[in-house]
Amino acid sequence: MANQAKDFYGEWKHKTKKMQEMAPDTVKGFAGMFEKIMGEGALSVREKELVALGIGLSEQCQPCIYLHVQKCLAAGATKEQIMEAASVSVVMSGGPAFTHLPEVIEALEALEA
């Protein structure tokens, strides 16, 4: 079975470069907001990324899931913490979030966590 997360990570740099070329103001504005909000604050970066992952699952946003699993790991989250945060999303969002748990697992496998 193909791992869509591996494909996603392989293509993402190219896609972001295209977005920067074709919508530079949008990319700059979003990046500035992201950096400001997702930095250290009352919540740690790790905690914020775990929250973002849960929201990505609830919203059924595959790119969000893949990117925030990667960011969770970079912020020091363990595989167990990532799966627990994903499970909280399932509790709150039910079946739609549950059907996206395989994407979390694919991302962890693609990143060899």
Task: Explain this structure.
This protein is mostly helical and 113 residues long. It has a domain at 44-113: AhpD-like (Up-down Bundle). 80% of the residues lie in helices and 0% in strands. It is built from seven helices and no strands. It holds the Pfam family CMD. This is Alkylhydroperoxidase/carboxymuconolactone decarboxylase family protein. InterPro entries: AhpD-like, AhpD_core, CMD-like. Keywords: Oxidoreductase, Peroxidase.
SSE layout and pairings?
Elements: H1 4-22, H2 24-38, H3 45-58, H4 62-74, H5 79-93, H6 95-98, H7 101-110
Low-pLDDT parts are none
Q: Percentage of helical residues? A: over 70%
Largest sheet: none
CATH third-tier fold name of the domain at 44-113:
AhpD-like
* Mean of pLDDT: 95
Number of strands: 0
Look at the helices and sheets and give the structural class.
Answer: mainly alpha
Give the CATH superfamily of the domain at 44-113: AhpD-like
Portion in strands: under 5%
N- and C-termini, Cα separation: 19 Å
Secondary-structure element order, N to C: HHHHHHH
- The radius of gyration over CA amounts to 14 Å
- If helices are DSSP runs of H or I spanning 4 or more residues, what is the number of helices? 7
The general outline is globular
Q: Any idea what the CATH architecture of the domain at 44-113 is?
A: Up-down Bundle
